[in-house]
Amino acid sequence: MIHLVGLAEEYLKRLDAWELGPFPERQGGDLDFLGLARLRREISKAAGFPMLLAARSNPRSLAFASRPDAASISQQGPATPDHVIRTKRLPLLGRDVEGYAREYREYFAAHAPVPAPLKRSSIRRRG
Q1: Can you give the pLDDT of all 127 residues of the chain as single tens digits?
Q2: How far is 117 from 119, CA to CA, in rounded Å?
Q3: How far is CA 44 from CA 38, 48, 53, 84, 101, in A?
Q4: Contacts of the segment 51-56: beta carbons below 8 A, 24+ positions apart
Q5: Alpha-carbon radius of gyration of the chain
């Protein structure tokens, strides 16, 4: 997988599609710390235990978040199997934590492993 990701990076660099920019100037002043605290509380409630929340406001993150197609491209699914394990299927976009958690539980239930059928040798006959 690492080799394939390296090939993809080289390809994007050859197409001059690796570097993003220009980055927008930061708009809107300070972060909404009260809003972030509320979001953290909702995420912790959905998870069932305390969670940490980190905000990014660097130029690269702001450039991605301000893209007109951010809602579409952020919901395309994971890039690698490692993303599935570490970051889940899709990121939360917006602040509807309850809806996100409900959709994730439904997705997980629909794709949960099916129990293996019993083998004939494991079934005891009576008689």
Answers
A1: 789 889 989 998 998 877 776 766 666 567 789 999 999 999 999 999 999 999 888 888 888 888 888 899 888 877 777 777 777 788 888 899 999 999 989 988 888 887 777 666 555 556 5
A2: 6
A3: 10, 6, 10, 20, 11
A4: 55/31
A5: 21
